[in-house]
Amino acid sequence: MIKPDLFVHELRVALRSLARTKGLAITVVLTLALGIGANAAIFTLVRGVLLRPLVNRGEERLIYVRQSAPGIGIENTTFSVPEIQDLRASVKTLTAFGDFSTIGFTMVGLGEPREVRAGVVGGSYFEVMGLRPVLGRLLDAHDDGPNAAGAAVLTYRFWTAVLKSDPSVIGKTVRLDTRLATIVGVLEPSVPYPAETEIIANVVTSPHHLSATMVTGRVHRMTELFGRLAPGADLESARAELRAVHGAMIGQYPETYSPKADFRISAVLLRDQITSRARTVLLVLLAASALIFVIACSNVANLILARTVRREGELAVRAALGASTGSLRRTLLADSLLLCAAGATLGVLSARPMVSILARYASRFSVRALDLTVDSSMLWVGALLAVVAAVLLAFVPRLPSAGASNGLNLSTGGLRITGSTGRRLRVFAVTQIAASFVLLAGAGMLIKTLFALQAARTGFDMHQVLALNVPVSSYGRTPDQIQGFYKEAMRQIGALPGVDRVAVGTAVPWRDVGIFGPGFQFSADGHVRAPGEEDPRARFRTVSPGFFAALGIPIISGRDFNDADRHDGEPVVIVSQSVAQRMFPNQDAVNHHMEWTDPVMKFIDVSLAPRRIVGVAADVDDENVVPVPALTVYHPLEQEIGGGRLFVHTRSDPYTLVPPITRIIRDMSVDQPVELPATLEDVRAEVLTPDRLNTLVFGGFAAVALAIAVVGVAGVLAFSVSGRTREFGIRLALGAQPWNLLTTVITEGAVMAGAGVVAGAACGYALARLAGSYFVDMRMPSVIPVAGSALALLTAAVVASMVPAARAASVDVMEALRSD
Question: What pLDDT sits at residue 643?
């Protein structure tokens, strides 16, 4: 057992010893601080996002129910009201269900008029979710039914960030499109799933939710579903019962559930559902930080080993005087503990700002990261890593025995590097390079992906098109008046200096992804389905005349819409090139007819009558950042539902037009929101932000790893050269040329790098295969990132070898021969 006072004495001796080698001590502390700080910060992030309990009461029994149709590529079809009613009536392993539909409202009455994303819920929702108010009350069963008064709850983030935590909002009346609602409460801080919303309102605030099409339409799916496990029931039994009830529904309504679509139902704990998107990213980030720790410890191990070799005279003398192996190991442990404690302290201090930066990064994948707080767990992680590193580093060197000098000439103090020591030095250097290679290859893959995303041609005019959200409310307006509003707005905005064209559309590319779901089934003249085949699906878009010219989309054949395409005129459409080629191969699609065949159309008031194709537009993909051929059908604004998005093509800086455009809209209607002005280029850049952040974070990790590895290789070779001074002097005396020594040392560095690359490739492949069995979206890097990473490491190793190689080549022969 170690006596405390004896170990304190060892620590004092170690402190004095380290004070004589300040450069080495500072290098070791900074390297460890980097490794420990990165791991403490990442662990805090993982704990906060993946492991921290939800605020929902009884979260261990709260589940998320999902319906999917993998046969047609739809991961989440959501549920219709009749489906939810069937599940409620038949499923006994769940005590209650909570429903949530995401919908957009124009809200007037709380400051500036604004477009808000809202959740429309039944009275059981908050009880099922186990949530409480921080102010007022939440919705309950008294708020259900068509005769209930309109009521809404503010989400905590909206209340604090936008309304500045104003308690007087309780009891205020707001207008949500055409309905009035009273603000009855503020929800406690909680994870906003399935969508981040500003308000959560009862069903009566949405006329659509009260309509017969919503209440009776089994194919009209727009509602997310949650449930609570009954006492004694577990998740597996609930899954089994849900599958059985769902199977009976499919058998009872075969016309609603296409065999090709392969409708399925599943259930997961809500916590797992919330963290699913962030889990892969954070665990990969944790693995990357672990590699940084391995690299840092390997580098420090080399430095400690080199220092111990230089202290072997002292250690050998102590062994010869009777010091035990345990005593010598305590000496090394004292050194390591001082260095690691200093490194951990600096690492924990640096981890706090790192957590702040990484939380903003992780918020792109999980909103839980926005509420992340640093607690004492980071201190414990730092302390644990420091102890682990200290113990490992204390047992790296080989100790001298009492009867051996262990390669050190005690009479002269000359330095000798034994084969064992040299091998250990090289093993640690190779370990650094191997770990660095894994990080570099991963970062290279992300960089290559980002370049491909940024270089993808979109088909839109990206620079000069300004997009704005201008959702015209139907409150107090007929459909004709809404169309008149847009026409007048386009006329006035078109007269502004610098404006070329103005148009209205349904969706801002990449921002309004999935605005009409996965698309609707359609058919066309002469189209014959193969046996078992379903009609294809196309995206539904509504645009004004001039939309294609404003966004730079060519009309390949036929014409654009014009003012004659009114609601009382002939139904017409423009189709994308992919639709024309799919439905009318080797023909001109113009003047043929198409029709919607999807049964859901009757629930959103879209006619199933045939429509004449008057034009074919070039393919553009307004949902995927990397475009794919998209089946799209465009309708004239005056003939179908849509609008809400304004597009302005300009000759000058688009952002200078935002104030005059806003004034025009507000002069026409003081209650009209004008929000989210951005060029298409900036909209796309915002969508690419998570990919850029991935590249930046992992690229930063890889750069740090490469820097440490290069220092490690240079250090090993420098130490090797200093221990082989006599050998190099003899070789020069026997006629060897300096460039021979230069080549020898550089070759050693290249060999170490090559061994590290091979080891890294093998370990990386094994890790990727292992991760692939848990994460379906895990991909192997392609040849270019792997080859580039190998070349970067080999080049860096050669460059790092040049300084010690130059020193070896310039050894003074006489001085080298006198060195022993």
Answer: 82
